[in-house]
Each structure stands twice: as structure tokens, then as C-alpha cells.
């Protein structure tokens, strides 16, 4: 089975550099073009999904639906609040002051705050809460798919958010024994970097892909083994923040590209279709 962790398309909160979290931030016009690009990339490269999971927030839902729309056969799409972004509490809607934290929201940094930054909010969701959500999602949705041999060649898409997907990835790694997570041969971007210190990143519509395959030698059961967590699997990381689909995609000038997308307004190329 192959999993694709995909970050949602660009939103007005992203371009304004303000905290979004669980706020239902609208897509920008450029974000809509990003969705079209990533959807076309998957369709033209033969990446056909057997199942798509998505956060139920609008920015992820529209990204997932856009990807599914260009699939040769529509995949079952499950939207769940378990895949929502971290709730930033009183920081939601506020401008991000720290450069490190700004990059974090854009999917290019660690979730750890800088010393002295104003990142922490008393009402913000804890890492433990996000971990609980992530493990619940894995237990209810991913582990059952893995246990069914009929899904061995299935492509599964998970459309979510930058901070939460780091937690989800951490839960995946922690659920497996050391040495069962590795980088694909020739993965130059991560060559020589131990998986234990690897922190994935995501640009808008950037995706991480990895194969989950059974190990040739299944580990012996131990009393400490959680029966809900599959054993004998190997994760091979194939791509991190893949965004080849965005190559050549230009932002519309004059502030139009960064403006909130109006679903009722036709794009210029729709007005001038060839007859």
C-alpha cells in the first residue's frame, strides 16, 4: 500500500501570514490553480486512489474533492475532524510574529516555538490531544486497510494540514519498531539523514509519499505489543514535499492570485473556450 500525505491548497490566511488552525480559511485564486495542478499530476502519472481521507475543514475538503474529480474512477472520500489542524486557541486569526512560526504555518519548519516567541496560547490544543486524534485515525482507518491483503497495491490519499501531519507521521513511525522506516535508494534530498531526526515538511499541495510493505521476517510477538498496531511492516519514504506539479505555475498579478476565490466567478479561460 502507498500513502500520500497531501497538504491543502493556499488560503487567505496563508498569504496574510496569520494563524488559521481550525478557522475555516478560504482558498485563494492561486490555491484553486494549485488544486487543478496537483489533481492533473496524479491523473496523468497514473496515481489512482482507492481511498481518500480528508480533514472536514473547507480548505482540505476542496483540495480532496478537486483531486478526486480528475481521477479516472472516483475514490471513496471520507471527511473527518480527526484530521483537522491544531487548534491555536486565542492565536487564531492573529498575525504570526515569529519568522520561524511563519514558516511553520507554511509547512517549512519545526512545530517547536522559538525561545521567547509568543507562540504558546493557553487555549491552544496540546500535542497530546493531536496525538490522540492521530492514533484514533490510524486505528480506525489505516490499520484495517493494511490488514486486508486485497489492499496491498492500493494508493491512499490523506489530505490534511502541515502541523497535524507531522504529528500523524510521528505516530506512524512510533507505531513501528526501529529500523522499519527507511528512505528509498537514491533519495538524494534525505540521503544519510537518520529517520529518527527527520521532520517532514509540506508546501501548499505539496505531498509526501511512502510505501508500506510487509517485512520478509515478521517480528515475534511480545507482551508489550499493542494488538491494534500492525507488526511486520516496513515504510519506505519515496518523496518529501513533492511539488513538481507547481513548476511553471505563476501567481496572477495585481493581487488577484492572492485574493479570496469566488466560486461563482468564471475564470478567464472559461470565457474564451474554443468553439
UniProtKB/TrEMBL annotation:
<dbReference type="GO" id="GO:0004331">
    <property type="term" value="F:fructose-2,6-bisphosphate 2-phosphatase activity"/>
</dbReference>
<protein>
    <recommendedName>
        <fullName>Phosphoglycerate mutase</fullName>
    </recommendedName>
</protein>
<dbReference type="GO" id="GO:0043456">
    <property type="term" value="P:regulation of pentose-phosphate shunt"/>
</dbReference>
<feature type="active site" description="Tele-phosphohistidine intermediate">
    <location>
        <position position="8"/>
    </location>
</feature>
<dbReference type="GO" id="GO:0045820">
    <property type="term" value="P:negative regulation of glycolytic process"/>
</dbReference>
<dbReference type="Pfam" id="PF00300">
    <property type="entry name" value="His_Phos_1"/>
</dbReference>
<feature type="binding site">
    <location>
        <begin position="7"/>
        <end position="14"/>
    </location>
    <ligand>
        <name>substrate</name>
    </ligand>
</feature>
<keyword id="KW-0378">Hydrolase</keyword>
<feature type="binding site">
    <location>
        <position position="59"/>
    </location>
    <ligand>
        <name>substrate</name>
    </ligand>
</feature>
<feature type="active site" description="Proton donor/acceptor">
    <location>
        <position position="85"/>
    </location>
</feature>
<dbReference type="InterPro" id="IPR051695">
    <property type="entry name" value="Phosphoglycerate_Mutase"/>
</dbReference>
<dbReference type="GO" id="GO:0005829">
    <property type="term" value="C:cytosol"/>
</dbReference>
<dbReference type="InterPro" id="IPR029033">
    <property type="entry name" value="His_PPase_superfam"/>
</dbReference>
<dbReference type="InterPro" id="IPR013078">
    <property type="entry name" value="His_Pase_superF_clade-1"/>
</dbReference>
Amino acid at each position: 500500500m502507498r500513502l500520500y500525505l497531501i497538504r491543502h491548497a493556499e488560503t487567505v490566511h496563508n498569504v496574510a501570514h496569520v494563524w488559521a488552525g481550525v478557522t475555516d480559511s478560504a482558498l485563494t485564486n492561486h490555491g484553486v490553480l494549485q488544486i487543478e495542478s496537483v489533481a492533473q499530476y496524479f491523473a496523468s502519472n497514473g496515481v489512482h486512489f482507492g481511498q481518500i481521507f480528508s480533514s472536514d475543514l473547507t480548505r482540505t475538503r476542496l483540495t480532496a474533492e478537486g483531486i478526486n474529480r480528475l481521477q479516472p474512477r472516483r475514490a471513496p472520500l471520507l471527511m473527518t475532524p480527526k484530521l483537522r489542524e491544531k487548534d491555536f486557541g486565542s492565536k487564531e486569526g492573529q498575525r504570526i510574529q515569529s519568522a520561524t512560526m511563519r514558516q511553520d504555518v507554511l509547512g517549512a519548519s519545526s512545530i517547536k516555538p522559538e525561545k521567547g516567541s509568543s507562540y504558546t496560547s493557553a487555549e491552544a490544543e496540546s500535542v497530546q490531544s493531536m496525538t490522540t486524534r492521530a492514533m484514533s485515525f490510524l486505528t480506525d482507518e489505516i490499520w484495517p486497510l493494511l490488514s486486508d491483503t486485497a489492499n496491498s497495491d492500493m494508493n491512499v490519499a490523506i489530505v490534511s494540514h502541515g502541523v497535524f501531519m507531522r504529528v500523524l507521521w510521528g505516530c506512524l513511525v512510533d507505531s513501528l519498531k526501529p529500523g522499519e522506516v527507511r528512505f528509498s535508494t537514491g533519495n538524494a534530498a534525505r540521503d544519510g539523514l537518520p529517520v529518527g531526526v527527520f521532520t517532514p515538511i509540506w508546501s501548499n499541495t505539496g505531498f509526501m509519499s511512502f510505501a508500506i510493505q510487509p517485512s520478509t521476517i515478521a517480528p515475534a510477538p511480545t507482551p508489550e505489543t499493542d494488538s491494534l498496531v500492525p507488526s511486520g511492516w516496513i515504510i519506505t519514504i519515496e518523496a518529501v514535499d513533492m511539488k513538481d506539479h507547481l513548476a511553471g505555475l505563476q501567481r496572477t498579478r495585481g493581487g488577484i492570485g492572492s485574493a479570496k476565490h469566488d466560486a461563482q466567478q468564471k475564470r478567464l479561460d472559461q470565457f474564451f473556450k474554443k468553439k
